[in-house]
Design goal:
The complex is a heterodimer of chains A (about 375) and B (about 550).
Chain A (H helix, E strand, L loop, with lengths): L3 E10 L2 E11 L4 E5 L6 H9 L6 E6 L2 E2 L10 E4 L11 H5 L1 H5 L4 H14 L15 H14 L4 E5 L7 H17 L3 E6 L2 H7 L2 E6 L2 E6 L1 H6 L4 H6 L4 E11 L2 E7 L2 E5 L9 E6 L5 E3 L8 E11 L3 E8 L4 E7 L11 E5 L5 E5 L6 H4 L6
Parallel strand pairs in A: 3-8, 3-9, 6-7, 7-8
Antiparallel strand pairs in A: 1-2, 1-4, 4-5, 9-10, 11-12, 11-14, 12-13, 14-20, 15-19, 16-17, 16-19, 17-18
Chain B lengths: L2 H21 L2 H29 L4 H5 L2 H38 L5 H8 L1 H4 L2 H12 L6 H4 L8 H26 L2 H9 L4 H12 L1 H17 L2 H7 L5 H12 L4 H29 L12 H8 L1 H24 L2 H7 L3 H8 L4 H34 L5 H11 L1 H4 L2 H16 L3 H27 L2 H9 L4 H30 L2 H6 L6 H9 L7 H26 L6
Helix pairs in contact in B: 2-20, 2-23, 4-9, 4-12, 4-14, 4-15, 4-17, 7-9, 7-13, 7-17, 7-28, 7-29, 9-12, 9-13, 9-17, 10-11, 12-15, 13-28, 14-15, 15-23, 18-29, 20-24, 20-26, 23-24, 24-26, 25-26, 26-29, 28-29
Classes of the chains: A alpha+beta (about 375), B mainly alpha (about 550).
Bound molecules: adenosine-5'-diphosphate and magnesium ion (MG).
The site of adenosine-5'-diphosphate has 12 residues of chain A, from strand 2 and helix 1.
Amino acid sequence: MPEVRIVNVSKKFGNIVALDNINLTIRDQEYFSLLGPSGCGKTTLLRLIAGLIDPDSGEIYIGNRLVNDVPPEDRDIGFVFQTFALFPHMTAWDNVTYGPKVKGFDMAEATTIGHEVLEMVKLHERLDAYPNELSGGMMQRIAVARALAAGAKLLLLDEALGQLDAKVRNEIRYEIRKMAKDLNLTGIHVTHDQSEAMAISDRIAVMKRGRILQVGTPQELYMKPESIFVAHFIGESNFIEGYVSSKNNGNSVVEIREGLKIQASNGAVAEGKQAVLCVRPETLTVEKSVKKASNTVQGTVERITFEGPNMRYEIRLENDALIVAIKSSMSGGWFSIGEKVAVVFPVANTHVFAYPEGSSLKEEISVGSR
Amino acid sequence: MSGSGLRLKALTEKIRETLDKLSSRTAIKFAVYASAVIIFFALILLPPIIGIVIKWDNIQFILDQPPLVDRALGAIQNSFIIALIVAALDLIAGIPMAWLIARGKSRWLSAIDTLADIPFIIPTTALGYSLLLFWSDSGGVSALFGSSLVSTGWLLVMLLHFTFSFPVVVRTLVGALLDYKVEFERASRTLGAAPFTAMRTVTFPVLRPAMISAFILAFARSISETGATIVVAGVFENGPVFIQNMKTEFAVANPALYNGAIVFASFILITISLLIFVAIRLIGPKLRLPLKRVRPVTERKLSYKKAEKSRNTITLIVFFVLILSPSLFVALPAFQAIFTPSFSNAITGSDIWGGYWQSLLLSYGLGATVTIINIIIGLPTAIIIARKKMGKFMSSVFDLLVNVPLVVPSIALGVSLGIFWKASFALPDIMLLIFAHLAITYPYFVRSMSAALERISPDMEEAARTLGAKPLGVFRTIVFPLTKYSMLSGAIMVFTRSVSETGATLAVTSNLQTAPVLLVNWIKQAVPASRLDIALAAGFLILLSFIILLALRLVVGREEKY
Ligand SMILES: Nc1ncnc2c1ncn2[C@@H]1O[C@H](COP(=O)(O)OP(=O)(O)O)[C@@H](O)[C@H]1O
Ligand SMILES: [Mg+2]
C-alpha cells in the first residue's frame, strides 16, 4: 500500500530521450493514470517503476524505500502487460498460482490464494485451458488475477485494456479500479485513451515527449488545463489565434481580428503578445438572431453532425477560424447549413495561452512523438 | 542495348510469363508437388530399405559366428551410448553459450558467435586430426604432461563428437533465444521470480522444442560421423568404425561374411536410430514437468551477478580450451610445413600430392552438384511441409520422413544405398556417390527452407494473389526475396555436409577418393605421408572452409533487414 515517488528521473535509448527529468508522486492507494500519445514514454516510466529497466539518473521510491537497486521480483508489484504475457506452457490455473509458488509458499497456501483471486476476477471456469485457448477478455482477467496473486501492493497496468473490444473494455476498466480499491492497492494505469483515464482515475498525469505536462484530477485537467496540449488532448477544445490587447483585474482581452475582441478569464499572457484562445465546444452558446452582444462573434454553419444526444455544429467565424459548438439535441431550435449564427464565448470558460514559442499551434497539438 | 540483347530480354520475359501462367494450372501444380514426393521416395527413402532387403539373406553368415555378432553389437552399443552422452553434454555446455551470445552485451560476442561455428564448417576428418594432434600427440598439450594426455579410444572419440556437435546445438539455441518473447521472462520477474527461477520455470519450458531439436541434431551428428572417428578411435570400435573395419578385414577375404556383417550392423543402427528419433519426437513435447516448490533462497544465490559472471567465465573457458583450441591446433604444424619440402610438393602437386588436389576438386564438385540438385528437388518439398499441401496429418508424417536421413548413420545409409544401386542398376561409382550424398544432405536444405517459409505469413502470399500475381510470380516476387538468405544458408549447410561426409563415401566406392577419405588414408598411412604433409592437407581444407564461412557471414549477416 505504498506511495510511489519519482525524483529527477531521466532515461535515454541511444539518442532518443524517452524520459526527461520526471518528478512525480503517486499517493498511497491512489488509482493513478499515465496518459499521453503513443511514444511519449509511458511504458518506459512504468517499466522503470517495476525495475524492468534502470534509469540513467534519478531516484525511484516505493513506500519510502529507494528501489533503484532492488530487482523487480523484490518490489512487491504486479505488472499487467499489454500483450498479457501469459506463460504459454502453463494452464490458466498454473499461471495464476505461479507467483505464490516461485515465492516459496507451500501448495495449500498457493491454492487458497489462487481461488481467492479467481473469485475476484469472477473466472472459475476453464482453469485447465492453456492461454491460446482463451478469449481476450479471459486472458485479461487471468493476467490481472496472476498479478494480484503474487501479493502485489502496487498494481501496474500497461495499456492492459488495449487488446479488448470496446464493450468488454468498458466493463473491465471499472472492475479493475474497484478491485484495486477493495484491496487497498496503489494502481498505476498506462493508457493513451483519455476517456478511459478520465473514467477511472483519481488523478492523471498527462505526458508528452518524455515530460509530464500536468498532474491533476480528471475535473481539474478538464476545467483548468494548464497548456494548449492538455486542453487539446483531454476532451475537445477550440483554439483561436490572436493578440492580447489589454488586461484588467486578472482577465485578458484578446483581439482575434481587427476590432473583434474576446474576453478570457485568465491573464497568463502579457499585453501585446501573440496568444491562443481556448474554449470547449459545449460551453459556447449559439444563437439564431444576429445581434450585437458582448463576447459574441458572427459565423456561418458549415457542417452539422447528429451524434444522438448532441448536435455538433462546425461554424466558420467572421475571422475565418473554424470552430466546433455542441448543443443538446433535445433542446430544440436546430440550425441548418449556411445559416448565419452568433456564437457567444462565456468569459469564465474561455482561457488564454501564450502562442507556442519556436513552433506553431498545429505542431503544439500534434500527437506525433517527434 | 543491342538488338539481340533486347530480343533476349523479350524472350525471357515471354518465358517467364508463360511459366507464371502455367503455374496457376492445378494439374501443373499437382505435377510439381507429386514429382517432389515421388523423387523423395524413389531416391532418398526407399533405396536404403530395399538395399538391406536385397542382401538380407547374407545376415546368416554373420549369425553363424557369435563372436563377430558380439563385436558388432558391442560397437553399436558404443555408438548409442556416446551419442546420448555427447548430446547431453553439448546441451549442458551449449545452453550457457547460446545464452551468452543471444543476451550478452559485449561487442566481442559477435566474434565469439562466428568462432562458435568453426567446428561445424571444418570437415570432420581434418577436425579429428587436429584433435588427435592436440590431445594425444607429443607435439600437443600432452607435451606438458610427459605422456599422452588423452590416448586414442573412446574418450577421444567423445571429445571429438562433443566438439563437432557443439556448433549445431549453439546455433539452434541462439536462433530460438532470439525469437523468444522476453516479455514472458519479465512477467515472471514481476511475479517474484529471481532471474534463475524465471529462466528455469518460464524460458526453458517455452524453448523446449528448440532444445529437443538441438539434442536430436547433436545425437544424429554423433551417430553418423565416420571419417574423424576412424582417425581418433585407435582400437576402439563404434558402429561406423566396425562397418569400415569389416571392409578391410573381410571385403576381399570373405565377401559373403562381409555383406552379412555390414547389412546386420546397418540394419540395427538404422532401426534403433529411428526408434530413438521417433521416441524423442513423440515423448519430448509431452514432457511437462509440474512446477514443484521453488527454493527461493538457493535460486536467488544462483541469480547473483557473481554467479552469472562465473557461469560466463566457465562457459568461455570450456569453449576456448575444449573446443576452439583443439579444433584449430592443426594450424601450427601446417604453418611449420610451409618452410619444408612438403609445401613445394603440395604446390606443384608432385609425389603423393597429385591425388590431393584431385580429391579436393572431386569433393567440391560433388558438393556443388549435390547442392544444386537439392535446391531443385527440395524446394517443392519444403513448400509441401510448410504450407501443409498434403493435409495436416500427411504433411507432418512427410515432415518426419524427410528428417530420417538425418538420424540414420551415414555409413549405414551408404552401405544399403550402395547395395541397392549397384545390384539393381549397376551405376557407375560417381553416380553412387551423388545419390549417397544427396540422401544424406537432403534434410538440411528442406528443413531450413520450410522453417523460413513458416515464418512468412500466408496472408502475404494471399495478398499478392489478390493483387493479380500467379503462383510462380508470388514465389518470385514475395517468397524468394524474403527467404533467399535461409535458402543460401541451407545450401551452404548441404555443401559443407557433403564436403565433410566420409562414411557414406567409404561405403559406396573404393575407387573415388574425396578429400576427407584421402585424409583418412594418409593418416592411416595407406600412403607414406609425413606428419607435416597431413597437417598441411588438413590446413588447406580448413582454410577453404574458412573462406566459405566468411562468405556465408558476409551474405547472411544482412538477414536482419526484415
Ligand atoms: N528498448 C528500447 N530501445 C529503443 N528505444 C525505445 C525502447 N523502448 C522505448 N523506446 C523509445 O522511447 C520512446 C518512449 O517509448 P514508450 O515508453 O514505449 O512510449 P509509450 O509507452 O508512451 O508509447 C519512444 O520513442 C520509443 O521508440
Ligand atoms: Mg506503451
